[in-house]
Specification:
This protein has three helices and 28 strands. It is mainly beta and 352 residues long. Strands 10-11-12-19-14-15-16-17 form an eight-stranded antiparallel β-sheet, with no helix packed on it. Strands 1-9-3-4 form a four-stranded antiparallel β-sheet. The chain has three domains: 102 residues; 112 residues, no CATH class; 105 residues, no CATH class. Helices cover 3% and strands 37% of the residues. It is globular and about 50 Å long. The longest helix has 4 residues.
Amino acid sequence: MAYTGVDNSSEYFNTVTYTGDGSADQSITGLGFKPDFLWIKRRNSTERHVLTNPQYPVVSGAYRWDDSADSVSAFGGGTGVAAFDTDGFTIKTSDATWNANGSTYVFWSWLGSGATPASNTQGGTRNVTLSANQTAGFCTFRLLGGLDNTSTGHGLGVAPDVVLIKRENASVGFYVYHKDIGTEKYLLLGSHAVVASQADSFSAAPTSTLFTGGLNIINSTDWFNGYCFAEKQGYSKFGSFLANANADGPFVYTGFKPAWVLRKATARAEPWMLMDNKRTPINPLGTILDPSSNAGDAVTPGDYRMDLLSNGFKIRSGNTSYGNHTSGVKYIYMAFAENPFVTSTGIPATAN
């Protein structure tokens, strides 16, 4: 039997750290592919999260970017990304968001089609462009909203498990659909708030061809931008677990050794907790970045502690800590692999 369809996860997802040089032209390399989605954050100081892709309009030779934090305007941050390159990207600014001299940064990146985004042929919204990768279960999209445009083709061939969508010209952050939250509910990536219930927000479960944003989210003739993720065995996992309020916390099976985990309580106001194996390569991980905050790396091991294992992750924080505070509280998560638990040729992974 095949254990995974993705033996080398770094061909589709990768984390790279870099140090700013304060120049007006720095090329960031070492990614291994031309990215279709970049998420960038300054680590050692307060600065906004940056989410960008080649489908954003190009202004003055640079790609606009979008911040997930609700309190920040939709576009800004200097000239930003000038080009998406074959092995990374080029920054055309010394702005602190991207490239302050001596500051440390991290970026996470995903591969879509690797080609120019194409007009949608999957049905649904007529005004949409896609960059879809069915092997990795990932797509970026840009669509024109409106009353008749709430259902959108995603090009994945299977139903997505997670959808992030944002209105381009508004300061509200990304709306988050997660399969373990359900329909007519959402989280905001730029907020600590619990799951919100509202009619006509993600008003129908995604199908193999469409996702439905609902009138509450895309009832506007403005442009929207976002991302869809579908689970792939041995490469990505999108699920949930229940807190046990114990330092011997829940074990979450993913079927691979995680490289990146994002988790959030659904019924308790807590930070989003984003961890990766490049900023903290040795267990236990205790450093997070919070997409709902402009703060840099938060190093509070007792609050966030987690182990990355060969086949999943283990929560190590106790009953007074974020991440495992109240027994029975549901946490949703997204996880991407460093390598599968067992490759397609039968080679096992090892823990950190």
